[in-house]
Amino acid sequence: MPRHTGARVVIILGASSGIGRATAHALARRGDTLVLAARSVEGLAEVERECLALAERAGHQPGPGEPRVLTVPTDVSHRDAVERLFTAASALYGRVDAVVHAPAVVAYGRFEEVPADVFDHVVAVDLTGTANVAREALRHFRAGDGGHLVVVGSLLGKVVTPWMSSYVTSKWGVHGLVRTLQAEVRHVPGIEVSLVSPGGVDTPIYAQAASYARREGRPPPPVDRPEKVARAIVRLLGRPRRETSVGPANHLYTFGFRFVPGVFDVIVAPVMSRFGLSGTPSPEPHTGNVFAPLPLGESVHGKWGRHWQRWVVFAGSVAGTAATVAGVRRAARGSGSGGL
């Protein structure tokens, strides 16, 4: 995609909350024309007002006869809804320069405890929804002058954790899909596909998740603000690259998963139990926002903040667990028994 110095037409999916909403704010300040999509009609109306106010304060005025922001309620798990979104954007503005895909839903619980229909719908939104959007984006880019697709993946598309099987499965699929698309469009002039992989981010997704774990989820430390991820997305749109990772511990997690998998598996379960699930009880199993939006809980931020203190405790816990594992392995070798 040619590097844009002026206003772009950008479709943002998952715009009603979290990273998508923060990205909408950042691009509104820049003066881009926005097409906002999410399941929540109420959430979209609120984000539209915020983006118009931000653009006005930044001194940006819409072109004659063109609204600065278009909202299109969209469930990405429905292919026809995604098609209608792109048709509406193209009909009004004549082009789509970039697409930012950020929607996701989560279900907590052991794999066998999460109902099959909940598991399947998490995959339908997180993975199949990404495929639906990518298909339409590439079709419009090929028919026009190119464009840039930015997909929000996750650290959990590179490592695994207990109690989030449907989300982990989906994000591994998303990462595989994006890498495949990058290979397929490598020599297509004007088309770019990028992946953003955040670690823990302070968004409402954890509190809105389905839960069969009897405790509310929370982001594992260290926790970044969604604005940090939004800034990475804005940078990618200005200077395309294959992938960017957002999170100071992402490379540490990935290294451990790939190169010391036995130690990683021993450490990750107790760490996830202590730091990936909060002390807030969730006594009755519930579907959260998996099947329908929960507008009252939608915002840019969750309730976790940076929680830097948890990072210090987390690091100490990991070091202690690793030392214990090392001691067990030394003892096993000394007694002649098998190790990890």
UniProtKB/TrEMBL annotation:
Belongs to the short-chain dehydrogenases/reductases (SDR) family. InterPro entries: NAD(P)-bd_dom_sf, Sc_DH/Rdtase_CS, SDR_fam. GO terms for cellular component: membrane. This is Short-chain dehydrogenase. Pfam families: adh_short (PF00106). It comes from Cellulomonas aerilata. Gene3D superfamilies: NAD(P)-binding Rossmann-like Domain (3.40.50.720). It comes from the Bacteria. Keywords: Oxidoreductase. GO terms for molecular function: oxidoreductase activity.
